[in-house]
From TrEMBL, chain B:
Main location: cytoplasm
Native source organism of the sequence: Sinocyclocheilus grahami (Dianchi golden-line fish)
Family, per entry: Belongs to the TRAPP small subunits family. Sedlin subfamily.
GO BP terms: endoplasmic reticulum to Golgi vesicle-mediated transport
Top-level lineage group: Eukaryota
Coiled coil: none
Name by which UniProt lists this protein: Trafficking protein particle complex subunit 2-like protein
GO cellular component, one term: perinuclear region of cytoplasm
Keyword annotations from UniProtKB, A to Z: ER-Golgi transport, Transport
Compartment(s) where it occurs, according to its Swiss-Prot or TrEMBL record: Cytoplasm, Perinuclear region
Length: 566, 121
């Protein structure tokens, strides 16, 4: 609260207190500018006058549900008084003050209010400061996160390339999502059940209504479960939300399961980052519009000034980040996160969340930051939670795969390396690849991202995949994609032919190739070992927990028995 | 004030109509439970409006209150409205973040309901 309130004066004084990370600057600024509008007019009214008095969060009731940006745009003054009945006089000045930052603020209000409640207003002022400050400076400064919140590594990692197109999943993000999907469900073509997904996404600390809305947007087939693309969409939306982007009313085109990333498909894997960056830069104008279009769903017409501002900022951002992209793939995604991002998006998210939701999820930005700390460590524990269910799958699959020499769901396709697709398995593949056009693009993007050996462990796998693909090895596609109807039919038939083909192929290959294959197989086995040991340790921990629970239950039972008997 | 009192009136109407719904569904014995139709039809007409009922197999009840002066609404249309309601409700249920019993906050659901109501007018 205090921090949020501190944000207000910061904004007023144009002090770069908490600036959003450069990544979001261009885009988040405009978004955040919208957000602050509401709080600035409502709760921040008292603050705006320069006093740092701690004001209690604006009562949610004060904030009418503005679902239609149209009205808000026109009545910037009009709605502020209704919102904060007790603060009508200050409303107009603050409204005017915030007006230059974009009329879309009203839109922001509606965005925030789409849930109808505004819980933690104080958090908004913080955002006010950062976006306004940023917009004033129009530079991609390296903001210093004063909040000092813990870094939400998971979310950050995925956020890195957010700058130009928030609704477009980059290859790094997709890879990250793939890993997360695997942690919940080893088979990429299978579904994640609703409850599993719920537990997983709840860890992101977003309010339940927002998560509910995200689910609505991403579960396209309305089956109560998430396929891999749906999962990517949902995860991406969550990441976007945590970075301060308002949730769209409808699913942006780039996030639809059938979306094909233009330009990515045609880029040969060897070029890796270069073409991607160029493409992104080229796409900037289009991306801007795309992003703006999707974000604008909730907003009324943007003033031309702010739109241009955004474009400028966004164009700057890709320029800034394009060099970043190149080095990024060379590093591990986790390391890439700059200090800039860590806190501000979290805090912004906290502010956003607290602002838009009446729930107590984010009481203060600090609390949110603290809560967010939990998320970074969760990735390892996550598999833990799901292991009870998925572990059996994992092991079964592992054993199956190691037995057959192929592992459809695991990245370490030891036996598959160097295989040529067996003829009988070919027929299922083409339909599979045709159906989800975006898959090849994302696959290729993952290939590109993975080209560097230093990249995540899975890079080895992906490289092999790419090489395999170059050889026309299509079978992996059904394996790694959400083609769960196809893959399920394709992988079982392909699995057995693989094992048969391996033997024949390996004998036919020249020795050097065998060596390479053996080495790759060794690598795969090592990865498998690592995964298994991790699995083992997690299961051990689970066992301990269960033992403890059992002991406590037994003791309780004993306590109750004498009571019952007497 | 008018809106508030109107809402209250509708709340009251719907509440009393629940009794009629209960009556209708309890009238069928266990053997006929499967054959019981989901659409309950006109529950009871009053001066100002007509009340239609619909119950799902999981005992979730939908009640539609229609203005009596709106004579153009046919039974088929009411049935299709209930069907749409049922489908949207199922979609809401599929959302793991939705706890049954909570007020529905799904935008998709709201938009479908609003569209339906606009069409009926």
């Amino acid at each position: 609260m205090a921090a949020a309130q501190a944000g207000l004066p910061v904004r007023l004084e144009s002090v770069a207190g908490e600036l959003p990370l450069p990544v979001f600057v261009g885009i988040t600024n405009e978004l955040e500018m919208r957000y602050p509008n509401h709080p600035s007019t409502n709760e921040s009214q008292p603050h705006i006058l320069g006093s740092l008095t701690g004001s209690a969060p604006h009562p949610p009731a004060d904030r009418p549900v503005l679902r239609h940006p149209d009205t808000s745009m026109d009545k910037q003054e009009a709605w502020s008084p209704p919102r904060s009945p007790g603060i009508s006089p200050p409303c107009s000045p603050s409204a005017y003050r915030s007006y230059p930052y974009g009329a879309q603020r009203n839109g922001t209000d509606t965005l925030l209010a789409y849930d109808g409640k505004v819980p933690g207003r104080p958090s908004v002022p913080q955002e006010n400061s950062s976006p306004s400050h940023y917009s004033l400076k129009l530079q991609s400064e390296q903001p210093v996160i004063t909040r000092g919140a813990s870094v939400e590594r998971l979310v950050e990692r995925a956020e890195i390339d957010y700058s130009d197109e928030p609704w477009r999943i980059t290859e790094e993000q997709r890879e990250y999502y793939t890993n997360q999907f695997r942690s919940l469900q080893p088979d990429l073509n299978a579904l994640i059940m609703g409850t599993v997904a719920k537990n997983f996404f709840t860890k992101s600390k977003l309010p339940i209504p927002e998560l509910s809305h995200i689910w609505e947007l991403s579960d396209v087939d309305k089956d109560g479960a998430l396929t891999f693309p749906e999962f990517c969409t949902a995860f991406h939306l969550i990441v976007a939300r945590k970075n301060g982007y308002p949730l769209p009313e409808t699913l942006p085109a780039t996030l639809r399961p059938g979306f094909v990333e233009p330009g990515v498909v045609t880029v040969p894997p060897s070029e890796a980052t270069e073409p991607l960056i160029v493409f992104d830069d080229n796409m900037m104008p289009g991306a801007n519009q795309l992003e703006m279009g999707s974000v604008d769903l909730q907003m009324t017409s943007r003033p031309g000034v702010t739109a241009k501002q955004d474009r400028r900022e966004e164009s700057r951002k890709p320029a800034e980040f394009s060099p970043k992209r190149i080095p990024d793939p060379h590093e591990k995604p986790i390391q890439r996160v700059s200090t800039l991002k860590p806190d501000s998006p979290q805090e912004l998210d906290a502010n956003m969340k607290s602002r838009t939701r009446p729930r107590s999820y984010s009481s203060t930005s600090m609390d949110d930051a603290m809560k967010k700390v939990e998320e970074p460590p969760t990735p390892p524990p996550r598999p833990q939670k799901t292991h009870s269910r998925a572990s059996s799958l994992d092991l079964n699959k592992l054993f199956q795969q190691s037995g057959q020499g192929s592992r459809p769901s695991q990245h370490s396709l030891s036996a598959k390396s160097g295989w040529l697709p067996p003829p009988p398995a070919l027929p299922p593949r083409p339909p599979a690849t045709q159906i989800f056009s975006f898959l090849p693009s994302s696959e290729k993007s993952s290939q590109k991202a993975v080209q560097q050996p230093n990249f995540a462990d899975f890079s080895k796998f992906r490289e092999e995949d790419s090489t395999l693909r170059h050889q026309g090895h299509a079978p992996q596609k059904p394996v790694r994609r959400k083609l769960h109807p196809e893959s399920q039919s394709a992988t079982p038939p392909s699995a057995t032919p693989y094992s048969a083909a391996t033997l024949t192929k390996s004998t036919q290959r020249p020795p050097p190739k065998q060596k390479r294959e053996i080495q790759m197989a060794i690598r795969k086995n090592r990865e498998t070992n690592a995964v298994l040991t991790r699995l083992n340790s997690e299961l051990q921990q689970q066992l301990k927990v269960v033992h403890r629970e059992r002991v406590t239950l037994e003791s309780q039972l004993e306590l109750l028995r004498p009571v019952a008997s007497t | 004030d008018n809106v508030c009192s109107g809402e209250l009136k509708f709340h009251y109407t719907v509440h009393t109509s629940l009794d009629v719904v209960e009556e209708k569904i309890s009238g069928v014995g266990k053997a006929l439970a499967d054959q019981r139709e989901l659409y309950l039809g006109l529950l009871y007409p009053t001066e100002d409006y007509k009340v239609y009922g619909y119950v799902t197999n999981s005992k979730v009840k939908f009640v539609i209150v229609v203005d009596s002066s709106n004579t153009s609404l046919r039974d088929n249309e009411i049935r299709s409205m209930f069907r749409k309601l049922h489908n949207s409700f199922t979609d809401v249920m599929c959302n793991p973040f939705y706890n049954p019993g909570d007020p529905i906050q799904s935008k998709a659901f709201d938009s479908i309901v609003s569209t339906m109501m606009v069409q009926a007018c």
